[in-house]
UniProtKB/TrEMBL annotation:
Residues 10-22 have a biased composition (Gly residues). Residues 58-101 form the HTH cro/C1-type domain. This is XRE family transcriptional regulator. It holds the Pfam family HTH_3. GO terms for molecular function: DNA binding. SUPFAM superfamilies: lambda repressor-like DNA-binding domains. Residues 1-33, 112-136 are annotated as: Disordered.
Amino acid sequence: MGDDDEMAGAGDGGTSAGGLGPGPSPDPATWGSMANWTEAERECWFMGPFGGGMPGLVRRIRRILDVSQRGLAALLGVSQSVVARWETGRTSPRASAVERLLGMAKVRATLHDEESGEEVTPMRADGARKHGGSRFPAHTDLRVTGWWIPRELRSMTSVEYFSSRDRSRERRDPAIHYRTGRRAKWVERLVRGVPDDHPALHQLVAEAEHLDEVREARRHPERAA
């Protein structure tokens, strides 16, 4: 609603607008101005006050910024009716708009697990990626099996196989495997546990180096002793 629109009550013990229960009655002048309101503005008036969720978040940010719906709309480059629909819950702002809202109010949102109450953080930005640069599927667990070898050489024990493995070791390029099948993942997680996130590349390199040490110790137990 506009900066000049006042919703002051006129007396105690009256009925709230729209007959929604006890509360102050609106100023009679308000009813005259409602003729020029949009449908979203009228709905915003009749539905208030609001609970939590996204409508409450938008209202909280507007209160922090101390702006009207029109003022917030101007800051975001949208119409006032869009902000009104956010606050009535008829529509929700896009993720990019929510990010801008939080930034303008200088606040940050956190997610919490409903059962444990622990904070849930986004997946790390520096997680390992495929050779083409794309990310691994978020629902999978990454596992290192050694150093990367081209597919056409993986079933061979030729000189090319070992040369390729040695080059990957020099480049710090581990072989990263993951499973997408639900049952296969269940079995693997039963044995290895459920990782919280995808590791960074340097962590997977360290895992590949550890595998080298383990395999070397198995081949030469006398050295380990």
